Amino acid sequence: MIEQDKLGYRKHVFDEFEFENGDILPNVEVEYTTRGTPKYDEEGNVNNAIIYCHRFNGNCLSIEDLHQLIGPESILSEYNFFYISITSLGYPESCSPSTTKLKFDFPKYSIKDCVNFKRKFLSEVFNISKVLGILGVGTGGYEAYTWACEYPDEMEFLMIGNSSFKTNGYRYITSKALNTIIESTDAYMDDVYSEQLSKIMFSINSLIYSQYFPKKAFQNFTRNELDLFMDTFVEENSSEDIYDFKFRNDAILNYDVEDKLSNIKAKTSVTCASEDTYYSSEFDVYPLKDKIENLEILSFNAEEFVYNYDYSHFENLFKEFLKEFKK
């Protein structure tokens, strides 16, 4: 029987993890949390696991954002799913440049490495080689797309929100600009983490905030509201390590699975926000119609959503999509 963590997270340690480029790290930590109850098939394998892949500035506990959908009082509680949320490779709660003290010498990693990191974890901790589904939000959607493209037989469904299948156009320019900011200072290569690096991260988070809300929502805020929300966002992310950020940004910069989307076999639901600043329905979602066979698309009004982050808006969508996977 699998022991579940009730309130927070737990840790697992790999003896080693091998990256795509051949680099190997020993004693690699993985942070994770679970929700729900595992069910088993006749061979003793967990058969109701859903993997949650968190957003860029999240971690495994970000699954709590979806408490209205997956909590014990949610509309899906009767479906008996077992949710596993894993803090991704490159994040300080798991294995990252900052926690390993390797800083700029940390192995360069890709989104596929992030996927293999989670696949290795599932195999070692839960003896899982195939999951029921994968739920990805933002850059977590990058992992979901990559997983389904590279290992199409390992899941039955995908649910992806506000994400894309490649880094191009506006996102590519933004990621390149962020790298330029970081690489423009000699302090990045210093042995000591200086105040200058902290100031650079302050500027970077201010820039990232400019993509945080849909365009119309920004227009509806007063200047005082914009100042308050921006200061709050920057403060909440002020402790982020610049090396963790840089390596994560490099992985995003090189992300592109467009040519592999036809590999996807899983039933797929993609949700997009109207007028989103960073992810465009026109370029990031609707082109999927010609690339993924079993696909559903839902576009919702993001203006109302951003004020209260009320995920109950999606209850009926989740229930209708997932009813065939009920265990």
SSE class: alpha/beta
Helix content: 25-40%
CATH topology of the largest domain: Rossmann fold
Beta content comes to 15-25%
Note the gap between the termini.
Answer: 18 Å
**In the CATH hierarchy, what is the architecture of the largest domain at level 2?**
3-Layer(aba) Sandwich
Overall pLDDT level: 90
Total of helices: 11
List the helices and strands and how they pair.
Blueprint: E1 10-18, E2 24-36, E3 49-53, H1 67-70, E4 82-86, H2 111-126, E5 131-137, H3 139-150, E6 155-161, H4 169-183, H5 195-209, H6 215-220, H7 223-236, H8 242-253, E7 267-273, H9 281-285, E8 295-300, H10 302-308, H11 315-322
Parallel strand pairs: 3-4, 3-5, 5-6, 6-7, 7-8
Antiparallel strand pairs: 1-2, 2-4
Helix pairs in contact: 2-3, 4-8, 5-7
What does this structure look like?
- The chain has helices spanning 67-70, 111-126, 139-150, 169-183, 195-209, 215-220, 223-236, 242-253, 281-285, 302-308, 315-322, and strands spanning 10-18, 24-36, 49-53, 82-86, 131-137, 155-161, 267-273, 295-300.
- The protein has 327 residues and is α/β, with parallel strands linked by helices.
- The chain has two domains: 10-166 and 257-325, 3-Layer(aba) Sandwich (Rossmann fold); 170-250, no CATH class.
- The mean pLDDT is 90.
